[in-house]
Amino acid sequence: MNRRIRIPLAELEFSYSRSSGPGGQNVNKVNTRVQLRWRVTETTSLPDDVRTRLIEQNRNRITTDGDLMIASQRFREQKRNQRDCLDRLQEIVEKACYRQKVRRPTRTPRRAHERRLSDKKKKSERKQSRRRPGYDD
Asked: What distance in Å separates the CA atoms of residue 40 and residue 128, rounded to the nearest whole number?
């Protein structure tokens, strides 16, 4: 998965069923749909901070028992669907490894603020000088 994160295959549980995807008459005979279960809440493969981010990011994929569920039926072969599940698991774990930076709000520097106001004033004076003299001038 990651250089420091390795998930042993013993922690993953695969189940197979009939797919509704492509395959013609083969769909009715062969179990090509793959469902991967991984007990995220009890795994020792993930650091605690990564585990909490993974659970937070994938709340809708995790059962009440704490199992992460990934299913694939994109391909006609069971092995390709199994590989697809593993690839998606890898993407999920890599996304959970990334810690989003905390944004610290900053203020506009005083010099930039003053420069903006002086530019506005100069532009106003320039446009004012282009006007025709009126009664009140």
From this structure: 69
